[in-house]
Amino acid sequence: MNHDDGISNKSNNRPFADVLNVHISRRKVLAGGLAMAASSFFAGSGLAFAAPPPWAGRPERGGPHAQGGPLMDFTPVPVAEGSGPWPSISPDYEFDVLIPWGEPLEPGGPAFSYPPTAADQAQQIGIGHDGMSYFPLRHGKFGRGGDDHGLLCINHEFGGNRHVLGKPAPTSLEDVRVSQHAHGVSVVEIKKIGAKWRQLRSHRARRIHVNTPVSFSGPVAGHGLLQTPNGNVPLGTVNNCANGETPWGTYLTCEENFNGYFGATNQQTTWVPSEAQARYGFSAGGFGYGWETFDRRFDLSDADYINEENRFGWIVEIDPMDATRTPVKRTALGRFKHEGIALTLGRGGRVVGYMGDDERFDYIYKFVSDDNWRAMRAQGQSPLDHGRLYVAKFHDDGSGEWLELSIDNPALAAKFADQAEVLTFARLAADIVGATPMDRPEWTTVAPNGDVYCTLTNNSRRDTATGPNPQAPNPDGHIIKWHDSDDHLGTTFQWEIFLIASDSHGTEDSYSDPDGLWADPDGRLFIQTDGGQKDGLNNQMLVADTATGELRRLLTGVSGDEITGIAVTPDRRTMFVNTQHPGNGDPSLTNFPAPFDGVTVPRDSTLVITRKDGGVIGS
């Protein structure tokens, strides 16, 4: 979802753009063109891919690259075929449609009807399909299987009123509940039956939405910043964008643009945003959902619900295998507009997570657990509750440093009372320590050799071409890459640009606004887009060879959608991706997944992608 209209960062921290400009002049990266520079850098890096993280499932490393052949051997979708009301896919691949918005989750659940009721929507697949993870249901003594049967945890980021309700604003609390229940997360059981994947209406399946009970853990749990005068219990998760998964088999869903669901009903007389509220983008009108009109929880001007907004903006852990466990908001990971979290294991088995804060001129963060994750869990501790949170600062010479956000820093102690305040207002803390403002940091992914990639989707407000974004404005975005010192535990890193989107325009590899991202075990980088594609294209998914910079277009979506979310089976023969907000809800643009008729409301859906020859996805 494009929220490129606002800027909450009013700090004077040196922007990434300025850093890149000096770095380019020193290192001559632009000699021969940015695309060639990226290609040359990676061709000479001698990548030696290690095994993927242990929770990624059983890797299949029998693709062409592992045998010395080409990394990508599929025919790309040409520009001329990348538009219209129906997806296009490489002729070497095929796709099926799975779990469209409104499908019932459990046996006997309510069938989709438009618009849904609040009670029905709470028992159905939500809207705004986004980040997701596949959790195999294994069988046998050694835990084999899962390539054809599993649970899909899928985020439901957002759905506009016109799409969900069929009108511009709610007119009752029932309307608000419909909208609220369309957001959140679904846990869905799916299985390959014959040659096709199917949803199983199952008692394993469930919804987590805006009115689901949740709990808090970590340094902010129990703090006054999470208490309201009303004393209402914490409920819900919202604007669930990208995701992560843990070594112990749980799902992490990330709350991004949570500020847009709050508003103020008496803003004309009493409500003025505090410094912290302004830094997180809260406003009287929000994004126009109108929840505050009928649900006091979301009314910033209601004195009984002071601090309710502090309960959002976190990463939430969900156990897909145990529906009795309450979702937990892990506060040690900080509060900001989380796009996602890419987890890896650092030296000694410590959990390390890389996170982007998706707003123009905001920051990139890293979390490192205090100890080996197995040892911590054996002691009854969550590795996500005990650790250090850092924010990135980029330097001109291609180096960078991770700045710890700790109350032990005198500059932070002068502003905040305790570590709970530092984490709750992580943006303000990052401003103070001097983090580098970035161009909408979104998805992160860690390659098996330890390289970390991050999409910087765009920044239309850039007015000076100085920094790692050498364009002003930067409407098309780019991808950066860095490598941490000390096996992810160090406080320094080396960075480079991987791809600049505008370099591709006018070519058969054209793309803009990179967003979703996944590095596979063989050296491929899957890139998904969200924004104004050039050359007549719909949003799309491309595959890049990280050693050469070669790009090929695997898939394009439908008019007005976003392509987002990546999950694979352990054998990597099946990939799940999403078409989000097809047609932006406008049936005159597309009726997907129904055949085009100009009338039927389009429904967010998951696409099940396979190679026709049964090979590894991307090969």
From TrEMBL:
What species is given as this protein's source? Candidatus Tenderia electrophaga
According to UniProt, the name of this protein is: Phosphatase
Decide whether keyword Repeat is in the record: no
In its keyword annotation, does this UniProt entry include Transmembrane? yes
What is this organism's lineage?
Bacteria, Pseudomonadati, Pseudomonadota, Gammaproteobacteria, Candidatus Tenderiales
Keywords associated with the record: Membrane, Transmembrane, Transmembrane helix
The UniProt entry, under InterPro entries, shows: 6-blade_b-propeller_TolB-like, PhoX, TAT_signal
* Membrane-traversing stretches: 29-51
Q: Which Pfam families match?
A: PhoX
